[in-house]
Amino acid sequence: MLFIINKSATQSHALSDCVKKAYAGDVILLIEHAVYSVVEIKPPAVFQALRENVSVCALQPDLLVRGLDKERCYDFLEYVDYSGFVALVENNKPIRSCF
User: What is the model's pTM?
Assistant: First the structure.
């Protein structure tokens, strides 16, 4: 399953809900304001419940437009561009948009 989240952890419970529901092989894609959730803070409360083999991706253009660079983000994070976003949609079914 592909979970697409567009709200930050401070705006919505969508990210924490998806982290709890995601299982091995699932992908969580953070877009728009949700990318603020990957800025490294201690402790990473929302990601503590993340199960093994669940991928967390961030849309790199959304990070860049918000002035966030990779050095400030969690190490486990994967980055995708727009073509990577399309590939995730093509390769992961079902797709769930979480608001």
Answer: 0.92
